[in-house]
Structure prediction request, 554 residues.
Amino acid sequence: LQGLPGGGLNIGFEAVDRHATTALRDRTALRFVSRSLPAIDLSFVELTRQTNRFANVLRGLGVGQGDRLFVLAGRIPELYVAVLGALKNGTVVTPMFSAFGPEPIATRINLGAGQVLVTTDALYKRKVRSMREQMPTLRHVLLVAEDGGITHEPGTLDLATLMHDASDEFSTVATQPDDPALLHFTSGTTGTPKGALHVHGAVVTHFATGRYALDLHPEDRFWCTADPGWVTGTSYGIIAPLLHGVTSLIYREEFDAERWYSLLEQERISVWYTAPTAIRMLMKSGLALARRHSYPALRFVASVGEPLNPEAVWWGKEALGLPIHDNWWQTETGGIMIANTPAFDIKPGSMGRPLPGIEAFIVEHLEAEGEPPRVRIIDAPDVEGELALKAGWPSMFRGYLNNEARYRKCFDGDLYLTGDLARVDADGYFWFVGRADDVIKSAGHLIGPFEVESVLMEHPAVAEAGVIGKPDPVVGEVVKAFVSLKDGHAPDEVLRMDILAHARKRLGAAVAPKEIAFLPVLPRTRSGKIMRRLLKARELGLPEGDTSTLEGGA
Ligand code: AMP
Prediction:
């Protein structure tokens, strides 16, 4: 890392501009591959020019440092150019999943007071246009024409025209390490999603973890399979490989076992970063398929997002010739914290050990729920407790947007409490146990039950809704909803399909429930909260635990 020539630190400069004046300038930075379109290679110098143009487009629109830009798109070049160009302009960026429905999109833009949205004409028409009136902060919508042409959609601007007219010279804004850079939304148990705010100084973690956890070196060809709508797809799908001058593959379509194996082979991927759900899907497709290809360039494979079963670690060895290195982190940490690195033996089933500079602990809570957290470090191996990190690493989130109280609740003194349960063994390896809350992890993505319940409640027949994660062998958990109906509605198949369709339309397929069950009433606490834990225990046939707060009759 270098810092800006006149002082300051900017992720965009470190990832892109810095390389444009070195021997790396003509190396491919980003390589976009898709089934139906020719591959697009952007060199570091070309990426510098395009991100300069985009930064100038923002400046021309009066969008400056600290303003907020959202991106809603598939993995198209314009997404990457917009994210990096915005960072260079000091504008705070939020990439969103293109699979989100209108509701999660509008919720996030409103929470983040987004002024600019970059999206495609098709996504705009399908998901944004009808909600536009309900997003009062949104001043500019920049559209990418899906067919590469020009868009003519009232109330929007054509991005290609703006880019064409903008200069490709730009002097990156002198942001400071503590200036906001990225806003990533993550789901909690209650309330709306939380916007975790990250700063330009996070680039130090992106760089260090790219080296220590993923072993990136300039000659590598790297593939991170995560979408930038998830923090992994930004920290490691965009930033970390560019920092290391590495060529990154971006596959534009969704999972396909045969295609993924071909890409690993044909694109000569040397370092691969993927996720347990994908690995389980590959395992399902059988070893024979994996062995139809060979992977001589591949030298390191890592996984993140959910627990990686020991069988999956060994499957890697059989199918790809390499064991899979699990690592752990979360939206709030901004980068990898705990990892099975190339430097140490893997313990299959373990998340690994804290990276250099990271101190991790298992803690127990001393206070009752609802009080400010007070914890004590458990100074013994193999005891289950909450995973905590010593605060202060460079990519630590600096707040939940507009929710200082919620942020403060994550800390006890200089310990950050992760919300995950784990234990540590005598060799210092951490083992994941579960989450301390009701948040659902489906195909690697966190889904807040409240966001789903709120949309179900909009349906005219629904009186109340409770949403849980139901264990699933491939995606970890699927979203299951329990609903009770208003008087005069019968719990039949037609209604079930209608509620499912409503949820899918509003939330998008990635977030909507896969299953709906009708109940006459939902179990509630005396204070009126739906007891999701009890719904889950009943669903799984597990002991119901403490039901002393259960409202009578449910
Ligand atoms: P997100 O903020 O969406 O990236 O989700 C972070 C959460 O994913 C963590 O708090 C964990 O619950 C889970 N997670 C991430 N990595 C791992 C892992 N290696 N093993 C088990 N759970 C993980």
The pocket of adenosine monophosphate is lined by residues 186, 231, 304-307, 326-328, 330-331, 351, 418, 420, 432, 435, 441, 446 (CB under 6 Å). The chain has a mean pLDDT of 94. The chain has 16 helices and 27 strands.
